[in-house]
Amino acid sequence: MSLFRRREVTGPIPEQGIPPRPGIGGGATAVTNETALRHSAVWACLRLRANLISTMPVDLYRKVNGIQVEVPKPAVLVTPGGDEVEMPEWLYSSQFDLDRSGNSVGLITARDGLNLPARIELVPSSDVSVRVRKGKKQYRIAGTLFEPDEVWHEKQYTVPGLPVGLSPVAYAAWSISEYLSIQQFAMDWFRNGAIPSAHLKNTSKTLTPDQADGAKQRFKAAVMNRDLFVTGNDWEYDMIQAEQAGVDWISAKQFGIGDIARFFDCPSDLIDAAVSGSSVTYANMTQRNLQFLVMSLGPAVSRREQALSRLSSRPRFVKLNRNALLAMDPQTQASVLKTRIDSRTLTPSEARAFYDQPPLTEDQKAEFDRLFGKGTSPAPTTATPQPGGTPS
Hints:
alpha+beta
């Protein structure tokens, strides 16, 4: 869903939706939200962001005496699309549309006793347009008009005065178009046998224009039909652009991936794109994930938390558990838990719950005592005065 420009109108404000991108001259490939998915970097960025956000557990809290306490979730935060569409799938689909078109739209098909949405059926953003007339907003979905209270609408990449979010695909269209055009060239060259600009010359005589045209037509007819072109020993053919075209094609593909990764706020190395002069190893992977969460994915997660909080009564609020992204290696995690237990900020039972283990039984505690001795600290002693008044 995107809007490329605004203009003054004297009648009703036109509908603002996802206009189809017009064809681009000069042999470039037209780019839409659908054709953009042919770009491997576009697909990788959308998939990565949707995968990570959709696998973050959704928790509902309220504050009691200043302490955050988890409370039971309503059905809409468990199966928002009905029994067949649970929260991970719903989050994935809606995040994919948010990152692709800047908007995620669904129809509210059921409400609970508090008149809050109980079921939201997502619809393709390409079927949606928004009409604002005399300050009143309406949605047109697949040709049918709906009032705002019938529609669930999340948006990102917003600008003042627009009722819809903007699409990064629209901004990245030129880079994507260049990549798709290069991809089309490669398909034509390797699959259809298209021939780049070349030089066919006769080495023994000068040809008249008619003779040159005749030789050209014979050659093109043979090549286009994937047939053999038979000549004597007086013809020479040079594919003067074939080698350079291959080099340019590979170079442009590499630059295209980096450009698209920036448009979608997704670091290139996270989509397996080569990054010159950088190295990510297991030693710094946790820090890398933290940087990605804070700098790239965090704002999108916060926006989704605020939107999902509208599905529950106040003062309850939704939190997406970011720890799923910040999973540590076993050695680091064990060290962190031990530090917290030693500093009395975490109990052994809570640490065991982290590994899905029940609290220690009395028999287990007794076994630990037999193996390692009592785990109690010695009682503090009172300092004994020494000669000269210095305590010991």
